[in-house]
TrEMBL record:
Record field: transmembrane: none
Reaction(s) the record says it catalyses: 2 cob(II)yrinate a,c diamide + reduced [electron-transfer flavoprotein] + 2 ATP = 2 adenosylcob(III)yrinate a,c-diamide + 2 triphosphate + oxidized [electron-transfer flavoprotein] + 3 H(+); 2 cob(II)alamin + reduced [electron-transfer flavoprotein] + 2 ATP = 2 adenosylcob(III)alamin + 2 triphosphate + oxidized [electron-transfer flavoprotein] + 3 H(+)
Organism: Companilactobacillus paralimentarius DSM 13238 = JCM 10415
Family from the record: Belongs to the Cob(I)alamin adenosyltransferase family.
Subunit structure: Homotrimer.
GO molecular function: ATP binding; corrinoid adenosyltransferase activity
Entry's EC annotation: 2.5.1.17
UniProt keywords, alphabetically: ATP-binding, Cobalamin biosynthesis, Nucleotide-binding, Transferase
InterPro entries: CblAdoTrfase-like, CblAdoTrfase-like_sf, PduO-typ
Annotated metabolic or biological route of this protein: Cofactor biosynthesis; adenosylcobalamin biosynthesis; adenosylcobalamin from cob(II)yrinate a,c-diamide: step 2/7
Presence of the UniProt keyword Transferase in the record: yes
Protein name, per record: Corrinoid adenosyltransferase
Start and end residues of each Cobalamin adenosyltransferase-like domain: 3-169
Length: 189
């Protein structure tokens, strides 16, 4: 099987449903950023500290779910043959919320903003959080142009919160303190 199609030689790519779009199209930007995020989660997994290996299975599940998100974002609004695979029925948002609540209960309370960082694992999770936020902005821009699977946006929004909570929990597991932003006024009550 050849992995090249030569369609991209002219700056275009084929999406699910056979529409051909420029690689700069907002739909391509959206699922391309999800692909980037998925790769970054792979980097996070490959660099987990020994104490943070407890996160491996759920991070791999997130990779599976991100692939589903990317697939749904690659389905053209005019495509009537393919159905979205990422739905509320899979309970992915509920699962993330439970993880967020669990990790939030295991970390020291904060009132001020914290700097992204700490342990290597936490730093990588914070990077994943920021790429998730960029993916969310790309998806919102697409949503303003044409219909999308709204559940993908909801999942991505919650995923950035998950990465924040997981980064803080990761620091706790590694015995590293979060660093407060020195000019932050109390924002969390």
């Amino acid at each position: 099987m050849k992995i090249y199609t030569r369609t991209g030689d002219k700056g275009k790519t084929r999406i699910i449903g056979n529409d051909v779009l420029y690689k700069s199209a907002q739909r391509i930007e959206s699922y391309g950023t999800i692909d980037e995020l998925n790769s970054l989660v792979g980097v996070v997994i490959a660099n987990l500290s020994e104490k943070n290996l407890v996160l491996k299975d759920e991070l791999q599940e997130i990779q599976q779910l991100l692939f589903d998100c990317g697939t749904d974002l690659a389905i053209s609004a005019s495509d009537k043959k393919h159905e979205f695979i990422f739905t509320e029925d899979n309970k992915a948002v509920d699962w993330l919320e439970k993880k967020i609540d669990d990790y939030s209960a295991k970390v020291p309370a904060i009132q001020k903003f914290i700097l992204p960082g700490g342990s290597r694992t936490a730093s990588n999770l914070h990077l994943a959080r920021t790429v998730t936020r960029r993916a969310e902005r790309e998806i919102v821009a697409l949503m303003q142009e044409e219909p999308i699977n709204d559940y993908v946006l909801k999942f991505i929004n919650r995923l950035s919160d998950y990465f924040f909570a997981a980064a803080r929990y990761s620091n706790v597991l590694d015995g590293v303190d979060d660093i407060q932003y020195r000019n932050s006024k109390p924002v969390f009550r």
